[in-house]
């Protein structure tokens, strides 16, 4: 039962059941295709730092590094759940906008959005 208690403790510490948005960033790829590995790691480090600055102000945000999100063009690629909004070209500058405008402000950054088929509108979250 100690392992189960440990999982519960970790979940509480991370606020897993309180989080409302989760951003996944394609980076640190074993076989880089969408962008250079070093550039993807630069974006990851920025994202970690920027979300760390918001911790306590926006405690409902999670981040995860993804080896590959299978959109092997114009990376790094990011996806935000539960909205299912995908972004391309996620440099630190673009991620700054995504964090401020989308994750904090609730408005999709259309300039870098990978539009869904049929143009499903998630512009106002």
What is the succession of H and E elements?
A: HEHEEEHE
Query: What fold name stands as the CATH topology?
Result: Glutaredoxin
Total tally of structural domains: 1
Give the biggest beta sheet.
5 strands, mixed
The coarse silhouette is globular
Category by helix and strand content = alpha+beta
**C-alpha Rg, in Å?**
15 Å
Query: End-to-end distance, in Å?
Result: 40 Å
- Helical content stands at 25-40%
List segments where confidence is low: pLDDT < 50 over at least 5 consecutive residues: none
Strand segment count: 5
CATH architecture: 3-Layer(aba) Sandwich
> Helical segment tally?
3
* Average pLDDT reading: 87
Strand content is: 15-25%
Overall CATH class? Alpha Beta
CATH superfamily caption: Glutaredoxin
Strand order of the largest sheet: 2-1-3-4-5
Question: Would you give an account of this structure?
Answer:
The protein is an alpha+beta fold and 125 residues long. The chain has one domain (20-119): Glutaredoxin (3-Layer(aba) Sandwich), CATH 3.40.30. The chain is 35% helix and 17% strand. It is built from 3 helices and 5 strands. The protein has a 5-stranded mixed sheet, covered by helices on one side. Helix 2 (37-54) packs parallel to helix 3 (92-104). The longest helix has 18 residues, at 37-54. It is globular.
